[in-house]
Amino acid sequence: MSHAHHDHSDDHDCGHDHSHDHAHDHEQPAGPVWRRFLLAALLVLAMLATACFVQVRTGEATVVTRFGNPARVLIEPGLAWRWPVPFEATVPVDLRLRTTSSGLQDVGTKDGLRIIVQAYIAWQVSADPQSIQRFMRAVQNQPDEAARQIRTLVGSALETSASGFELADLVNVDASRVRIDAFEQRLREQIARQLADTYGVSVVQVGIERLTLPKVTLEATVDRMRAERETIATERTAEGKRKAAEIRSAAERDARILEAEAGVKAADIQAQSQVQAAQIYAKAYAGAPELYNLLRSLDTLDNLVNPGTRLVLRTDAAPFRVLVDGPPAPTVSRAGREHE
C-alpha cells in the first residue's frame, strides 16, 4: 500500500511538473513575437515611404498623375514626394535632343521647276510644365509618334518654303547667289510656332540634308548655267575690248603728243643747223669764195640727184664743170703780192 501510494504521488508530481513546463513554454515566445510585429511594421512603413518618393533623372521630367489626370510636373533632378499608388502615379517624359528627317520630298520652286530635297530637324520637348503637358496630350508621351507627325509637318513646310525661292537661289555656280541659309530659316519659321503650340516641342535646328534635281530640272539648270556663262563671257569680252580700245586710244594720243614734241624739237634743231650752216657758209665764202661755190654746187647736186634720177647735162656747164676742171687754183691777194 505504501509503495503504491508512493508511485501515485510520483505520478502526480510528474504530472504537475509536466503541466508547469508546458505553461512555461507558452509564456517564453511573447517577447520575440512583439519584436517581429514591430519589425514588420517598420518594413511596411519603409515600403510606404519608398513608394511615396520618386526620383527625377537628368534629361527627364516626371509628370505626377492623380487618378490618371496630370497633377503636377517635376523638372529639377532629385527626389520628390508623392502619394502612393493608386492615389498618385508618375510618368517620365524624355527631354533629350532628338533628330528627325523628312525623307526625300519632290517640291516646286518659284520659277516652276521641281527639286528633290530632304531636310532634318533637331527638336526636344521644352522643359516647362505647360509644354510637357501639351506633349502628353498630343502624342500620349510617345516620341516615335511625335517624330512621325513632325516628319509630315516638315514635308508640308518644304513645299511652302520652296515656292518662295527660284532654282538659281538654291543651285548656282556662283556661291554668292546661293540662299540655302534663307531657305532653312524660312522652313524653321514655318514649323517652329506650330510645333511649340501643338506639341510643346522647341526647334533647336533645321537644315537641308540633301538637294538633288530631276532629269528635266537638271537639263534646264545646265542650259541656264550655260546661258549665264555665255552672258558672263560676252560681258567680259566686251569689257576687255573696251579697255583695249581705251589703252589703244591713250597710246595713240601719247604717240601723237610725243611725235608732235619730237617734230617741234626736230624743227628747232633743223633751224639751228641751218643757221649754223649759213654762218659756216658765210665764213667759208669770206675766206675762200671758190670753195664756197664748189660746196654749193655739190649741195645742189645732192638735192637734185638721187638713186632713181637720170640727168643728161653738159659737163662744161655749172655745176658739173667743176668735175672736169677741178677746183680753181687759189688766188693770192694783193696784200700778199705787195708783201712779196
**How far is it from the N-terminal to the C-terminal residue, by CA?**
232 Å
Helical amount among residues, as a percent range?
A: 55-70%
Q: What overall form do the CA principal axes indicate?
A: rod-shaped
Query: In sequence order, what are the helices and strands, one letter per element?
Result: HHEEEEEEEEHHHHEHHHH
Task: Estimate what percentage of residues fall within beta strands.
Answer: 15-25%
Radius of gyration: 62 Å
Q: Ranges with pLDDT <50 over ≥5 residues?
A: 1-28, 334-340
Largest sheet: 4 strands, antiparallel
Computed structural class: alpha+beta
Compute the number of strand runs. 9
Number of separate helices: 10
Provide mean pLDDT, rounded: 79
Pfam families: Band_7
InterPro entries: Band_7, Band_7/SPFH_dom_sf, HflC
Keywords: Hydrolase, Membrane, Protease, Transmembrane, Transmembrane helix
GO molecular function: peptidase activity
Could you please describe the fold and organization of this structure?
Residues 1-27 are annotated as: Disordered. This is Protein HflC. It is found in: Membrane. With 340 residues, the chain is of the alpha+beta class. Helix content is 60%, strand content 18%.
Topology diagram in text:
Elements: H1 2-27, H2 30-52, E1 53-56, E2 60-66, E3 69-74, E4 78-81, E5 88-94, E6 98-101, E7 105-108, E8 114-125, H3 129-139, H4 143-162, H5 167-170, H6 180-199, E9 201-212, H7 215-287, H8 289-304, H9 321-325, H10 334-339
Antiparallel strand pairs: 1-4, 2-3, 2-5, 6-8, 7-8, 8-9
In brief:
The chain is an alpha+beta fold and 340 residues long. The protein has ten helices and nine strands.
